[in-house]
């Protein structure tokens, strides 16, 4: 039987039993459903490493490092032998080998790549995490593996790269692919997918701000972009169902030295392996 192709522009659907669970919690109490939604929002799905990523997984030097700022350990992947290093950052529910096609081409270009499984992702420990832990991991990896010439991030990884640069990551160029933008928009979209009322989104924001003593909007990508001075390539698909294209366009508009590349029909994940996208990435690296 022929395997049915998946639609790259179809959004990942939240299982019906979770939506029903949310509605039951909401019926019982607002506080209960807010806590339940917060748990869901901070719990990534750990996927098995697919066969297409086996080569990078097997050829990488893997090491567990400790990130003292967050008191968590993460698994890193050193792929290639060059002293010229590029940092790769996966997105939510991703893993350190997810950008393997880009990594393979970067190695041919004379670089090596450092990537990692973010907290609670892949082979790293834990069950829950938030973006600030992605950022802390990036900054610790720079201490242990840097300097890096370039940083490339996908989705939440793109947001994290821009925030890490704002917070001191030193790179000459950055590339963000399918990056989210405004944190409140992300919370709103999540709450809508769960079938909950808008007020739960506001309560979620307040819960996170009180728990972590941060302002959620401070992590919005457009705010970080305003402080990034290096050349940045923003890649986004017009048909991305996970992160609307307006996010990528808005980030680009805030950059001092930005380049925008929009694609069609690639969705949120297929974009990572598209040859035209990879060609654009390599051209950007060579000419900036």
TrEMBL record:
Residues 86-181 form the AB hydrolase-1 domain. The keyword Mitochondrion does not apply. Pfam families: Abhydrolase_4, Abhydrolase_6. Keywords: Hydrolase. Residues 224-287 form the Peptidase S33 tripeptidyl aminopeptidase-like C-terminal domain. GO terms for molecular function: hydrolase activity. This is Alpha/beta hydrolase. It comes from Flavobacterium pectinovorum.
């Amino acid at each position: 039987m022929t395997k049915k192709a998946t639609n790259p522009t179809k959004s990942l659907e939240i299982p019906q039993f979770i939506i029903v669970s949310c509605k039951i919690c909401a019926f019982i109490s607002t506080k209960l459903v807010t806590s339940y939604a917060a748990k869901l929002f901070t719990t990534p799905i750990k996927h098995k490493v697919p066969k297409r990523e086996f080569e990078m997984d097997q050829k990488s030097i893997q090491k567990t490092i400790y990130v003292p700022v967050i008191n968590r350990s993460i698994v890193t992947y050193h792929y290639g032998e060059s002293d010229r290093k590029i940092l790769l950052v996966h997105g939510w529910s991703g893993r350190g080998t997810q950008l393997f096609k880009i990594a393979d081409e970067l190695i041919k270009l004379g670089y090596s790549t450092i990537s990692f499984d973010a907290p609670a992702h892949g082979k790293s420990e834990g069950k829950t995490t938030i973006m600030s832990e992605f950022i802390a991991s990036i900054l610790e990896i720079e201490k242990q593996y840097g300097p890096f010439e370039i940083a490339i991030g996908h989705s939440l990884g793109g947001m994290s790269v821009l925030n890490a640069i704002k917070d001191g990551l030193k790179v000459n160029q950055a590339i963000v692919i399918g990056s989210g933008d405004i944190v409140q928009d992300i919370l709103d979209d999540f709450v809508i997918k769960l079938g909950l009322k808008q007020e739960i989104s506001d309560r979620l924001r307040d819960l996170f701000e009180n728990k972590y003593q941060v302002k959620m909007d401070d992590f919005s990508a457009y705010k970080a972009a305003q402080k990034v001075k290096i050349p940045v390539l923003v890649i986004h698909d017009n048909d991305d169902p996970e992160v609307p294209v307006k996010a990528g366009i808005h980030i680009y508009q805030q950059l001092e030295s930005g380049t925008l590349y929009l694609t069609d029909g690639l969705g949120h994940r297929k974009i990572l392996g598209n040859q035209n996208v990879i060609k654009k990435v390599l051209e950007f690296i060579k000419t900036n």
